[in-house]
Amino acid sequence: MTTDASVILHSGPPIDATDADRRPPATTEVVVIGGGIVGVSTALALTRRGVPVTLCEKGALAAEQSSRNWGWVRNMGRDPRELPLMIEAMRIWADIEERLGGTGFRRSGILYLCRDESEMAARARWLPYAREFQLDTRLIGPDEVARVLPGSTRRWEGALYTPSDARAEPQKAVSVLARAARQLGAAIVVNCAARAIETTGGRVSSVLTEKGPIACQAVVLAGGAWSRLFCRSLGLTLPQLKVLASVMRVDGVENGPESAAWGPGFAFRKRLDGGYTVANGAPNIADIVPDSFRFLRAFFPLLRIEHRGIRLRLGRRFVEEAFWPSRWDAGRRTPFEAVRVLDPKPVVQLLESALCRLGALFPAFRSAIVRQRWAGLIDAMPDALPVISGVEDLPGFFIATGFSGHGFGIGPAAGQLMADLVTNARPLVDPTPFRFSRFSDGTAVTPMTGL
């Protein structure tokens, strides 16, 4: 395993300048704040219904977690409350790839590898959900693991396997969706931070951006890791924290596996360019910040589930976020303009450990050359479920955030569900599990899966 000395971080490519508007229109019907996969999918779903939409992105499209994830598109292992939406997302992904192409969507299968009977038993506990939703997930034994994932030096006890699960290209997919939305009439404005929301008669009436105001009837906040700060400026408490995940891209792997897999200390999936996206799988890093103490009680059940998958770290982010304002003058530069793109440093040690582990278990990876390392900030919620919801206390304001590391795969369906809510259409699936009010109406917020 070798490392190219020119390894640099480069987040997902922004939409071409020729495909982005320089300034927002003065008036639209819906403003979408945030140009990740959920925001762009929402804009596309609305424009397909003939709704005038303006999307404002403070930096570049998909420059944060939407281009920095593993690229898995999976049903397997999800919280059963997410499964109806994810099943729809899988259908939408296939349709997008067929009609537009370029997303890299491929049904190549995913495996959760197991070393012993106890790990097999733990994975088997998810099978009732697979049966309930008629998925093709099953437990397989060592011989079938060897057929599906050839080349391992270890004889695995087995795996939880879903042949129909898929992969796609995070650094390509959002641009494909954005171009489709713009061709249908959406205005997409990059380097344009939304600073504040104005109301008339208690209802959303405009968005104030750094490039001027936009009169509108509804606003969708799809700000990913920034959503908590924006909500705070509106007096809304969104219990969201950020978790850092490190990833890398390698090539030089000959005759490597087609299926994606997670195992002890590694995870990988094949890329369209023939290389592989590789991660450690665990642990991820949770920086201790002031919000960590504010939301400690809410997140404690998730921390119990993820006690092996989360490593706490105290560093300069505590001080940085301690000085973030709760309110600001919308006529001046805001925190969203001060940091156009969240570009945290990857934890190289975790990535090197993953590649060493892969090389020991799969000889094809011993010749891997590291071409790129990066990290992203996952927008995590206490129950690891997203918020896809209107806000009762602020009519016309909607939130689509907190996807807890599951957002890339589910993003296209989340966008359609949000479009349903904005237009008062029959929802794609029951939105009740994703309501914002679950954090204030006395509901027991209980995670069923981790990040």
Structural features, described:
The chain is an alpha/beta fold. Helices cover 29% and strands 23% of the residues. It is built from 14 helices and 22 strands. The strands form 5 sheets. Strands 1-20-14-17-16-15-5-7-6 form a 9-stranded mixed sheet. A 6-stranded mixed sheet has the order 9-3-2-13-22-21, covered by helices on one side. Strands 10-11-12 form a 3-stranded antiparallel sheet, with no helix packed on it.
Q: In the CATH hierarchy, what is the superfamily of the largest domain?
A: FAD/NAD(P)-binding domain
What is the count of DSSP helices, taking H or I runs of 4+ residues? 14
Cα(first) to Cα(last) distance is 29 Å
At the fold tier of CATH, the topology name of the largest domain is FAD/NAD(P)-binding domain
Tell me the fraction of residues in β-strands, as a range: 15-25%
Q: Could you tell me the number of beta strands? A: 22
Low-confidence stretches: 4-18
Helix and strand content put the structural class at alpha/beta
